[in-house]
Amino acid sequence: MSSNNRAVKIVLVGDGSTGKSSYVARICREGFHNDYIATLGYEKTEVMVNTTDGEFTITVWDTAGQEKAGSLRDEYYEGAHGAVLFFDVTSKTTYKNIPVWHRDLMRVCGDSLPVVLFANKVDVKERKVKSKSIIYHQKYPKSMALVEGSVKDRIHLKEPMEYVLRSITNNSELSICASLEASLFAAFDAIDIMKEDSDTQK
């Protein structure tokens, strides 16, 4: 890959209600390029990311409700540089379905595809899937990493993207400049403040 702005496709997979769409909303917010692909039933969102290894345009593909394991078309996976596999730590079923989703990924993309196993909702005290019982990623030490986080509380949102980017650039020291969503929130908060000031002056 060149040192210029590089295009990267990352697919989000996992059972419904595990936080995939909320994750996209958190890191992108409104106003960023978002396309609904009617023929496939998926959504893709472009995010510009500045890193210590240059700029990337990450296209994040979301299932947009097509969450039945094994039901996604091959076109959803094809061309992916990495994937984030979601499960909900308050639901054992979503963790048990991880192998099904991963097999589907490997069937199309191969077993070397960088995958982040994202354990979502760690902010909830009554979690059903404890940290010590999350061992699936250990079967694939070269291509899968575990990240425990919370989309709701903005915990470890940039780590999945960093893992994929580090894998495809072969740069273990790559890091996203500032929080992935911090700069985005700052920009939109500034717009919100300007709108509020404008409203008070009317």
TrEMBL record:
Biological process terms in GO annotation: protein import into nucleus; ribosomal subunit export from nucleus
Q: Which domain of life is it from?
A: Eukaryota
Molecular function terms from GO: GTP binding; GTPase activity
Listed under GO cellular component are: cytoplasm; nucleus
Q: Which UniProt keywords apply?
A: GTP-binding, Nucleotide-binding, Nucleus, Protein transport, Transport
Q: Which Pfam families does this chain map to?
A: Ras (PF00071)
**What is the first-listed, main subcellular location in coarse terms?**
nucleus
InterPro entries documented for this protein: P-loop_NTPase, Ran_GTPase, Small_GTP-bd, Small_GTPase
Q: What PROSITE patterns does this protein map onto?
A: RAB, RAN, RAS
**Location within or outside the cell:** Nucleus
Q: Which SUPFAM superfamilies match?
A: P-loop containing nucleoside triphosphate hydrolases (SSF52540)
User: Do the record's keywords include Protein transport?
Assistant: yes
The family assignment reads: Belongs to the small GTPase superfamily. Ran family.
Q: What's the protein here called?
A: GTP-binding nuclear protein GSP1/Ran-like
User: Which organism is this entry from?
Assistant: Hirondellea gigas
Specify the taxonomic lineage.
Eukaryota, Metazoa, Ecdysozoa, Arthropoda, Crustacea
